[in-house]
Amino acid sequence: MISSCRLQSRRSLLRTKHDGSSLSFEVSCYLWIGDYLMGRVQQIRDGRLCLLKYLYNRSEELSGRLAALEKKAVESLLPFTQLEDFTDHGVKHAYNVQENLWRLIPREMPEPLSPFELFCLLCAVTLHDVGMATSKSPNERAWQIRLDHFERSRDFVIENQKELNLTEHEALIVGEICRAHGMPNLKYLEEPVFSIHKYGTVRVPLLSAFLRLADSLDMTTSRAPSIIGNNRMMSAQSRQHWDIHSCISDVQIEDAPSWDIRIISFPKNTSDEHRLYELRNTLQNELDTIYPVLRVAGVFFKKIELMLNLDLSDEPVRMIKNPFFLLAAFGSRNAHLFTGRTDEIQQMVERILRRRLVMLIGESGVGKTSLVEAGVIPKLRTYRYKVIRFSFQDDPVASLAKAISKSPQNAEKTIALVNVIRTYCEKHGKLTKLLLIGDHLEQMFTISKSQQVRIDFVQHLSRVLGSSLPVTFLFCIREDYLPDLYNLSLDLPDLYVRDNTFRLHRLSRESGIEVFEKASQYATVKLSKHLIKRVVDDLCYEGEGAVYPPYLQIVGHGLYTALGKRQGAEAMSVIPESSYDNLGRVEKIVNNYIEGLLDQYQHHDKSLVGLILSTMVTEQNTKKRVSKEELHQLLPECHSLDRLLSSLVQHRIIRRSLGQYELIHDFLARRVVEFIQQGRYLSSPVRAAIGYMEENYHRTQLSSREVSCASGVSQTYLAFLFRKELGNSINKQLNRIRIARAKELLRSQEQLGDIVNRVGFRSASNFSRKFKEIQGVSPLGYRKEFFSTKS
Question: Cα(71)–Cα(56) distance, rounded to whole angstroms?
Fold first, then answer.
């Protein structure tokens, strides 16, 4: 049927369980397809039927074409979209997405979807994962297909538009909607994007937003049935992904006036709860991305709520295999694992009880959020405090007013914050004390129009603090924003004073030992006291005897992860010290953690990822923020920037905030520099060539032929490797090395003419031109900027 795109071959695979039983892979994956082929349409849920009936009542022609397309897809395409290790992307998933659409699309929109818009949307729902069934090479891995399947789906629809009974323009629209469900955002779609004379304007961004949200919300246990998961051999990461679906019983969607989306879950243990919160945050980020498009159309879903049903636990705390959570913050449900901060918690509670404004300051990753969520808030419950959180990401006044009143607020409208708080206190009784927590105060110094936002916030905050209301503010801020905080305190002196400020430092050696001992207490396999002391001593090597919490979590998680891969690990009662030595101790475990994240990328992508990350590291080996526009200017050779940025965010290597990107933690910056300097993502000839250039860059006569001889391959093949792995030519890479050395010399008092000779350029004009081409500023301009920032 479909000839322009090769469908992946499927063979009958048997997956044998540890007890010897087996189940056919196709049988377990596609058991439910027979329901459709046998005509059991009565089992289709009401929402899907209503959606199809809605289209039929408005256009029998489009309804008939949709039915024909669905039949062709179900019989010939969707059965092949189920890849190993991945959840359902077939017929049932498409039907579930249609069900979600029925609940997401309001019955009364200011401008309802036209029949043709609904037709395009439903076609895209059917075909949006068809890219999972296409491959570009015979031995292509499943994860490679999954990574860009949305691009493949778009190409598939456009290339096979005749056999799908779509016109060329219809295929373009449907394909673009399919593609949009995997893109980082919808900003690249201009509205209106497409127009058809017969049907009028098609709002592709809105249709794409509906598909993205409906697709993301198909997460219940039916997406990953246990009958399949229990009979599959899959990686540990995929197993966790499947297991978390079994904890979600339902997704509730209610449109106007409440606009609620609630995930109903039943976590089996604290690890499941931790992953559920991560899933919720991922979905919230997705909703935040598409919300501007929905809002324009009169759709106001803005928040994802996670409802935890914790009554099913047989015991207060269950033993877990891995009590370490990597870079994630501790919350109320895993507060029993949060330790090592007893004194800090007590001092914070005392400040909150005495003061009306408390500032928590600390470096990135030191554990400010964990201290508040897992330490301070549980303590304050006994003091009858009501806790409300708000964000500084956009307008903090509007965000806080909305969080308190739980009703939509217009950010453009002047909000009397003191009246909102007074109304809340009167409603909840005089004995109630209100704690308003604003995490990441530093975001207020990075948002657009931040000067006016800060002025408004300080004014409202001053009025509240000047009243007699029983309210306390708690703000958390990174210490590198203290100069900005000091400037802000000039307008509000109580904002930054010694009595209400608490600085959170790294863990002491004793506290680090306490953290490991507490984690070991709740783990199925214990850590010996001697091993704990060894690990903490290694962790104290950096930071002048203090333990950096992210390092601690990564090392602890690495120990237990390695243990889980060993045969006979279940019979162990104590982790042997040899396991720690075999892992290479602290330094190697942290390096392996980052390399493990980066190894998930294809070879060429890995080199591009290295270049992207290098732009987020300063010359002092600390992290810095860069915008997407800056990345496009710095890396014009990276044509897949959007896809790689989205992937890096998902893998928690970088984070996105208001259009800018930065590394998750400062400690990653040094590891990124080492990773790039050692060229671990490069092949042996490329590493040898770069090493030779770094040793001989000062020679003006250094040629590509000489470099290729040093690498042991031909000049043509070396040039091919450079383009493949670095997206660069040999000469361009040499110029980058020379400019990097020139930047070091420019930070000294050396004369420009001497620098030109020392870095291998033949003339000052050629040097200046290449320097500005790479750095975006002239050599003298760079030197001026450097010394101005130093002073």
Answer: 16
DSSP result, 644-657 = HHHHHHHTTSEEEE
Give whole-number Cα distances, 589 to 142, 551, 583, 668, in Å.
28, 9, 6, 13
H or E element, residue 15: strand 14-16
Distance (Å) of CA 444 to CA 395, 450, 662: 8, 6, 16
Which tokens is 452 given? 């006016």
Cα–Cα distance, 277 to 274 (Å, whole number): 5
**Residue that is written with structure tokens 């598939």 in the block:** 156
Beta-carbon neighbour count of residue 300 at 10 Å?
Answer: 16
CA distances to 8, 284, 393, 665 from 441, rounded to whole Å, are 50, 20, 9, 17
Q: What is the pLDDT of residues 38-58, one digit of tens each?
A: 333 333 345 778 888 888 888
Lowest mean pLDDT among 282-296, 537-551, 723-737: 537-551
- State how far the Cα of 456 lies from the Cα of 397, in Å rounded to an integer: 8
- Which residue is listed with tokens 């309001």? 106
Output the pTM of the full model: 0.46
SS3 label, residue 362: strand
Query: Per-residue pLDDT tens for 530-576?
Result: 898 988 888 886 545 688 888 888 888 888 887 766 655 555 678 88
Strand arrangement of the beta sheet that strand 433-439 belongs to: 385-391, 433-439, 471-478, 357-362, 501-503
Per the listing, tokens 């895993």 go with 334
Helix (H, G, I), strand (E, B) or coil at 574: strand
